[in-house]
Structure formats: C-alpha cells, structure tokens
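// run 5 | inverse folding | seed 20
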C-alpha cells in the first residue's frame, strides 16, 4: 500500500545520479538555479559511470603530447559511427551536429574536471578507434570513473542549494494542466516519485539523465535487440526507464544501436553469472592482445563496430 502523494516545489529536478546527472546538476547550479534536487533510485549514487576504468576522451588538451589536429576527435567519431552515418541527408546532418557538440566541447569538459573539480587526468592513452591518444585518466590507483564521480559529487554537496535523494524511483513524469488540455507538445512540470512506499510529487523543470538499458537484458534489450537477449553485462540489472518518456510523447531513436564491449572478466567459480566485471579497454590500449588458439586475430584498438562484426 502507498500513501497519497505529497507535493513539493523545487527549482530543477535531475533524474539519475550517474555522471550525466551529476554534470547536469553542476551545470544547473553554475547557471544560478535556486535549488537542485538529484533523484537516484539506487541507494548509492554513481550509476554505471562509477565503474568506468579507462578514462574520459577529450581533444585537443594540454595533457596530450602526441601531435594531433584539432578535428581528430571529430573525424574519429564520424568514422566509428560506421553505418549509422549512411542514412538520409537530414539524419546525417543531425548526427554530425551531435558529434560536433560532443567533440567541440570535450576540451572544456577536461579543463572543468581537472581545474574546477580537481580530477587527475594527466595520463593519456590511445584506445579503440583513435587516430591519436586522447583518453584521459589519473596516475593513481583510483579508477577514473570513481575519481570523477566522487569528486564531482563532493563539489555538489558543498553547495547548500543541492540535495541528493537516493532510494527514490521516478514512476511518472507530470505534465502541466495546460499541456494536457492542448494539442501541442507536452510541457513537463515535475515528477512523481516512490520512496519508502510513499508517493511524492516534485514540481519543476526536469532533466532526465538515467542512462542506457544495457542491464535490462530480458526487457528493453530483448525488445530492440533480440539477438542480445540475456547477454551478460557489466551494467547493473536495472529496468530501463525509457517508457516514462514514451508515456509523455517522446520518440525514441537508435534503440537498436547497442554497443558491445569486446572483453570482460569471467569468474571461474561463477561462470554463468549475468553480471560481469569489465576488462577495461585500457588493458588493450596499454598493449594487451587477444588470442584465439594461440594466434592474434584482430587489431585490439580498432573500432567497436569491427569488434562486433567479428563476434567478440
């Protein structure tokens, strides 16, 4: 049984406490939001981002020593997109715009993490699909995902305008009354959350940053990529939340474009567990090779799409 919903008001609501949600909360505060509430359905923040162990990409940055051109990151990304770039002119231009947004802002992202948040990103490695080394991580023992997430979270918690709520599951996106009555696109006015069997509604603009659905192997993954149903994953086995977006009229795109990581560790005492531990790409970037019957059979730092074609 649940109790009737209690309504609260706030300035900005961010759903999902992985790196995307933490970065969104930080951006909102730097844009002078009066308050930010970050909602996470798990008991701990960090999502799957905290597991990242290879680094974060950016170019051109002061940490790179290898000669490079300013557009190398952009060119590499377009190439790695592979067949998804062979679409209509409109779709291609949309993808180009998104790739430009990603790559052109990567220097600012690296500088923000290094200078404002204090993350060590001094080690740069060449990884899959790179023409020049551009994956940044620290020189210490803390994996880059954990280092970035924990330091960014600490900076947020130093701001009195920020509030983190864990164990809160968003079950509905709320529309404004005017939006419901009109025939136009929906205007999202808040969320309804479930926590400790209590329903609460929060009013305010919503940033939805819940990540992907790689751990939802028997539901969303099976729906959009039935060939991958039940695939073991390093992602936590959590249901995807995309249905909440569809319920308010969102159109999902590229749901079948699921990227498979080539390597993972298998516990010999639990070989058939669906939750695996990542054998990070940095292992291959630093010289690890893949063997089959004693023979090397692939360029270990080729694009991920090539690895999938080989069935890795």
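// decoded
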């Amino acid at each position: 049984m649940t109790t009737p919903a209690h309504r609260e008001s706030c300035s900005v609501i961010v759903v999902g406490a992985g790196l995307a949600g933490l970065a969104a909360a930080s951006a909102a505060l730097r844009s002078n939001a009066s308050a930010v509430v970050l909602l996470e359905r798990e008991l701990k923040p960090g999502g799957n981002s905290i597991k990242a162990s290879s680094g974060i990409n950016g170019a051109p940055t002061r940490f790179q020593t290898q000669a490079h051109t300013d557009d190398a990151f952009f060119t590499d990304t377009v190439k790695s997109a592979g067949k998804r770039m062979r679409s209509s002119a409109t779709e291609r231009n949309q993808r180009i715009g998104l790739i430009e947004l990603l790559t052109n802002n990567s220097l600012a992202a690296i500088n923000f993490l290094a200078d404002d948040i204090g993350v060590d990103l001094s080690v740069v490695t060449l990884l899959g699909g790179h023409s020049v080394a551009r994956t940044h991580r620290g020189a210490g023992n803390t994996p880059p995902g954990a280092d970035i997430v924990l330091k960014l979270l600490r900076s947020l918690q130093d701001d009195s305008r920020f509030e983190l709520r864990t164990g809160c599951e968003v079950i509905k996106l709320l529309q404004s009354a005017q939006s419901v009555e009109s025939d136009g696109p929906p205007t999202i006015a808040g969320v309804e959350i479930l926590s400790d069997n209590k329903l609460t509604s929060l009013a305010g603009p919503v940033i939805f940053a819940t990540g992907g659905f790689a751990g939802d192997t028997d539901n969303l993954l099976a729906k959009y990529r039935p060939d991958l149903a039940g695939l073991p994953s390093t992602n936590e086995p959590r249901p995807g939340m995309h249905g909440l977006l569809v319920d308010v009229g969102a159109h999902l795109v590229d749901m079948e474009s699921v990227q498979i990581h080539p390597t993972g560790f298998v516990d010999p005492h639990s070989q058939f567990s669906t939750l695996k531990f990542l054998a990070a790409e940095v292992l291959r970037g630093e010289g690890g090779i893949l063997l089959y019957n004693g023979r090397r059979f692939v360029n270990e730092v080729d694009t991920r799409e090539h690895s999938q074609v080989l069935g890795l």
